[in-house]
Amino acid sequence: MKKLNVDVAVIGGGTAGLASYRAAKEHTDSVVLIEGGKFGTTCARVGCMPSKLLIAAAESAHNAQHTAPFGVFVDGDVRIDGQKVMQRIRDERDRFVGFVVDAVDGIPDQDKLIGKATFISETELQIDDHTLLTAKRIVIATGSRPAYPAVWNDLGDNLIINDDVFNWTDLPKSIAVFGPGVIGLELGQSLHRLGVEVLMFGMGGQVGPFTDPEVMAYAQKIFSEEFYLDADSTVKEMIQKEGNVQITYIDKQGIEQVKIVEYVLAATGRRPNIDNLGLDNITIENDSRGVPIADPFTMQTSVPTIFIAGDASNQIPLLHEAADQGKIAGSNAGVYPNIRVGLRRSSIAAVFTDPQIAMVGLSRKQVMEKLGSCGCFETGAVSFEDQGRSRVMLKNKGLLHIYAEQGTGRLLGAEMIGPQAEHLAHLLAWAHQNRMTISQMLDMPFYHPVIEEGVRTALRDLNAKLRLGSAMISECMECGPGC
Q1: Are 126 and 132 in contact (CB under 8 A)?
Q2: pTM to 2 decimals?
Q3: CA 150 distance to own-chain centroid
Q4: Cα angle: 140, vertex 144, 150; to 5 degrees
Q5: Other Cβ atoms closer than 10 A to 27
Q6: Residues 6+ apart with CB under 8 A from 259
Q7: Domains defined along the chain, listed by start
Q8: pLDDT tens digit sequence for 348-406
Q9: DSSP readout, 357-380?
Q10: How far is the C-alpha of 145 from the C-alpha of 164, rounded, in Å?
């Protein structure tokens, strides 16, 4: 068995791992990157990029089918060629992955190890059966994988995860989606708009990432109007039948239904890839899921020489978060023991449904945990149903809630569903990171007519509730003439 000694070993060649490798290399040349599967990020291969390609096709189909309200009529039916839809998705997906692979190809061969890493001790890793690696510091960046009940494996090839969708050569006729979270909503709505019959089932009433009950209820109503969605479902049985899946469930009217679908999509969450690393061979503090706990500002675990980053950590599983965490972990592994606090940005998340979903800063649940006992916060609200620019575009569905602290008037966070929420979220995230007050935000320019005027409406509503400004006299002047 080959033996190697390095300063820093990074386990995982995804977004966090590559960021860790590059950051560590700024401080030492003795760095090795270990990958047990294919190089290339979850985002490029099976996540944010291919899903957005599917969403783009779905938006095109939906827009073509809904021109009549503008007085524009398309003769004949809109035809969706599933094979061409999926061909473009695969081609563009491979192109995005190619960029990542090219970056990996630029890493010197001596800095790459292919194989599964297992902890032997806090400083020793065995790579398959070919290498024993001793590293002074180690970064865990092994990513995550879909998680679902093991009994679903009885469905065989009819059970799929989001990874499988992007390898299709054609669109199916029907699918049952389990999990109306980020992945389930994006894929489920897109497939519905591309002509696939979609049934979506959830548990406990949760829809999307929301913690604000009013915003979540609005989202459930909007999506339920477009396709079948039961966020608190009772599914009695799922069995394979003649190459398909037969689902027996109680519908929202309490009536037992039996439906046949081609596939069941498990979108019930993801789990960190840390269970096969041999962590039981070392003494490290874990959370309730068995994931190593890390300081969010240094990414250092309870073992001072071990760091963790990205989806493998107990923190936010988003690409930009993985990149930031990877940079912090790799840099600190490189400069250890002189570790430093890294830049952590305000939380921002988006779901690319229609209407879009976004979360900024503290969620309502976090605000309640922090200030709920004293009632020291207020909520500003705006509906996009009467917002001027939204109505012009017939994109007038949505609800925005913004939270601020009593006394200081400082922005705490926001939850929203609405048109172009991805852009509204960025404005709010920048304000949150700069610790702006609601009054300061209202001093910023707002053009007319733009959807951002809806943010101003919510801010003025919030400012009045904080008793830092007067109540709105004319909502029309806030949402824009024509509301």
Answers
A1: yes
A2: 0.91
A3: 23
A4: 130
A5: 18
A6: 174, 176, 199, 246, 247, 249
A7: 2-146+271-335 (3.50.50.60), 150-268 (3.50.50.60), 348-479 (3.30.390.30)
A8: 999 999 999 999 999 999 999 999 889 899 999 999 999 999 999 999 999 999 999 99
A9: EEEEES-HHHHHHHHTTTT-EEEE
A10: 13
Question: How far, in Å, CA of 478 to CA of 380, rounded?
Answer: 13
Residue with tokens 């865990």: 140
Give the CB-side neighbour count of residue 387, counting CA atoms within 13 A: 29
Q: Which residues, at least 6 apart from 447, have a Cβ–Cβ distance to it below 8 Å?
A: none
Summarize pLDDT for 206-242 with one digit per residue, the tens: 999 999 999 999 999 999 999 999 999 999 999 999 9
pLDDT at 46: 56
pLDDT at 133 over 90: yes
Q: How is residue 30 annotated by DSSP?
A: -
Q: Is 166 exposed, middle or buried (0-12, 13-18, 19+ CB in 10 A)?
A: buried
Residue written as token pair 């404005």: 427
What are residue 266's DSSP bridge partners? 178
What span, in angstroms and rounded, lies between the C-alpha atoms of 8 and 149? 37
Here the tokens at position 11 are: 């386990």
Q: Report which of 39, 50, 3, 140 is spatially closest to residue 352, judged by C-alpha positions.
A: 50
Q: Can you read off the two tokens belonging to residue 169?
A: 């050569």
Angle at 311 between CA 310 and CA 314, to 5 degrees: 90
d(CA 57, CA 100): 24
- The answer to whether the CB of 343 falls within 8 A of the CB of 326 is no
